[in-house]
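Proteins fold reproducibly. Next comes a concrete instance:

***
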Amino acid sequence: MKIVRYRSAGAAAWGVIDDEGVVTTADGTPFVDLRPTGQAVANPTLLAPVTPRTVMCVGRNYRSHAEEFGNKVPDEPLLFLKPPSAVIGPDAPVVYPSLSGRVDPEAELVLVIGRRASRVAAADAWSVIGGYTCGNDMTARDIQKSDGQWTRGKGFDTFCPVGPWVETDYDPTDVAVTCVVDGEERQNGRTKDLIFPIPYLIEYITRFTTLEPGDVILSGTPEGVRPVQPGNRVTVAVEGLGSLSNPIVAQD
């Protein structure tokens, strides 16, 4: 099932999307007990298909990406948080902040939590995941480096595009993750190359913090990261999950 969040007639709601791309309404709670009604929605605009309390991100989780920036491959997952205010949906503009001189997109597979997760063993990790989607870990690289920690560089408003939907029936263990800018492919990796695989990440993260349904984990980005400029359009895709496209615009 493909879970979406949409706006129609000025109101936001949850629904599902069928194989023909038709959005229909749904009852229940997303990632818990959502039930499609079959009633089509008129002129929907897709929003981010998550409203997370926690946006957990994994840095340097592909060896090739760590090496392209001359960084040490971590011995344990390198975690950071983005504020929920960074989350935007398909086609929403990413604002290039006036404070930065270099902004990079980073294509990622996103895990969406489906039930409350605390101290989950790796063997049980799949049971707490409600679905998967595409994500873009936008980064003000110069600010990330100058600050020495990543909160500002990763946390600007609009710096976490997610979408276009959450797929609940999906095998994420060996799929392509790509980033294309104005038709030019920049990133192309596979999730089988994650340094810390998904079950390990779930166990590691839930040992110290509780995740709730709708929270997300951005699992890391492959090599090929390069900067963008206002006027570019970034398209992130994960094999079998569709694509997420966002324009880059200058800050007013």
Q: What stands out?
A: Residues 2-46 form a domain with the SH3 type barrels. fold (CATH 2.30.30).
